[in-house]
Amino acid sequence: MTDALLPPLIQQMMAPEFYPHPVKEPIQLVQTHISYVLLTGDYAYKVKKPINFGFLDFSTLAQRQHFCAEELRLNQRGAAELYLDVLPITAAGEQFQLNGAGEAVEYTVKMQQFPQSSLFTELFDRGELTEDLLVQLAHVLARFHAQAATSDYIRSFGSIAKIRAAIDENYEQTEQYIGGPQTQQQFDETRQYTDRLFAEQQSLFASRVAHNWIRECHGDVHLRNIALWHHKILLFDCIEFNEPFRFVDVMFDIAYIIMDLDARSRPDLSNRFLNAYIEQMGDWEGLQVLPLYLSRQSYVRAKVTSFLLSDPSVPDAAKQEATATAARYYRLAWEYTQPQPGRLLLMAGLSGAGKSTVARYLAKHLHAIHIRSDAVRKHLAGVTLDARGNADLYTPEMTQKTYDRLLHLGITLAAQGYTVILDAKYDRQPLRQSVIAQAQAHQLPLQILHCTAPLAVMQERLQQRQNDVSDATADLLPQQSMAEFAPAEQPLVLTLDTTQDLEPQLKQRVF
Q1: Which of 30, 141, 191, 245 is the most exposed place for a label (fewest CB within 10 A)?
Q2: Residue where a domain terminates, one of 113, 148, 179
Q3: Collapsing DSSP states into helix, strand and coil, what is residue 103?
């Protein structure tokens, strides 16, 4: 759009004299389908377009004022450093004035401008989006969700009727692209999965509501809406204009990030993020609905890209690229719904034997769910993961509760098609036997990985351990011992020397 075709207000906002502060010339204009964003150097100003798309209504000045205020309020939860103010724009004749006297004719959100190079998408492209950074993101998002509001009204959006309405609409809007970027088989099987899930898992969705996992979330937390700025992770540009997009299951939110990484062929990174987030929240049950939301996010990305194919103004070359991109997302949406064989891996060994290190290595390579007993124990007791537990945390009763929950989670998730690693000492035969019996009853493959290391090595590891969920210390080692593996267990056991290279030890029986 040339400057002459822009609204008079936006034309004036592209002039340096419009602003009461120095600007970097030329002022850049970024347009989306719903807003104008003016980049002035230190600050950015967003003006909402007077439009009504049904799911979004900015058609009146009052609506635009309201949603500017909502954008400021909601985004200060995850990016207070970026969202500064809502300012009125007044008019005197044909001249507009920012924050002037008199009656407002428009409103703008004033934001701190930051470099595009700080976006997580840019970090990924430069090879700088590391596992450690994704673990930090998991902690940031877990705190965001833990503090997010919920209420009877918000929880009502967790009903199957409301969840499936948007998903069914996606299918209806994309039927015309079958035979193009999407195959008939993919369409049919993806839809059959969601229909079956909603029909057969009503109690699961009711449980998500009952346990307060439907919250006022971000609603659009993909990698391009996350930035690392001044050494702090910021979650910005959340959904302010549509409650059904924002009042969602926390699994809906994290599915954006996981899908983004999977689509970029980095399931190792998505797995690290997922395990770190789930451990912080203690919401392992949420993994049962995660495939639904992963498929949904990928399908929406495919749908929006497909719409370009129906636009006569889009050049043929761009349509060819859009077809390939949409096809990739349709396929990923379908893949998330396909059944997978579940399995259980049981870690065993004394404190400091390297169980968690091996489990993290396996989770990365097998895309497994890694459940640590130390985290389970603290969630059961209502103790924060970074706090040191007292003696009450380690009573025989609490230990039994911990292992019972590990067993429940392991069987539930493996039966859903996950590879699950139960990371605990499992130093007593009765504890292991419970898992073996349940795995056999559910026809789930099971392996026991017995981690070993010299005593001096285990002591040194425990002495050097910092900022870890485990409370184990070196002085506890003399009190610990491993019960012998019974003859019936022996075929399931692989003993690992954790002071040696893991890959050749695991290659034959685990990978």
Answers
A1: 30
A2: 113
A3: coil
Buried b (16+ CB within 10 A) or exposed e, 293-328: bbbbbbbbbbbebbebbeeeeeeeeeeeebbebbbb
Which H or E element spans position 125?
helix 120-125
pLDDT in tens, 267-317: 999 999 999 999 999 999 999 999 999 999 999 999 999 999 988 888 999
Domain that holds residue 462: 343-507
* Both structure tokens of 279: 């451990």
Work out the number of other CB atoms within 10 angstroms of the CB of residue 31. Answer: 12
> pLDDT per residue over 134-182, tens digit each?
999 999 999 999 999 999 999 999 999 999 999 999 999 999 999 999 9
Q: Are residues 372 and 255 in the same domain?
A: no
Last residue of a domain, one of 277, 303, 336: 336
In sequence order, what are the residues at sequence separation of 6 or more whose Cβ sits closer than 8 angstroms to the Cβ of residue 180?
Answer: 306, 309, 323, 326
Q: Which of 214, 344, 356 is nearest to 283 (CA)?
A: 214
Residues 83 and 198 both lie in one domain: no
**Angle at which helices 131-147 and 267-281 cross, to 10°:** 40
Q: How far apart are alpha carbons 212 and 151 in whole angstroms?
A: 8
Q: How far apart are alpha carbons 255 and 253 in whole angstroms?
A: 5
Q: Which residues pair with 37 in a beta bridge?
A: 30, 46
pLDDT in tens, 434-462: 999 999 999 999 999 999 999 999 999 99
CATH of the domain at 64: 3.30.200
Rounded Cα distance between 260 and 273, Å, is: 12
Contact yes or no for 283/274 (Cβ under 8 A): no
C-beta of residue 342 within 8 angstroms of C-beta of residue 415? yes
Cβ atoms of 363 and 369 within 8 Å: the answer is: yes
How far apart, in whole angstroms, are the C-alpha atoms of residue 18 and residue 35? 19
The two tokens of residue 305 are 């890209």
Contact 349, 452 (CB under 8 A): yes
**455 φ, ψ to 5°?**
-55, -45
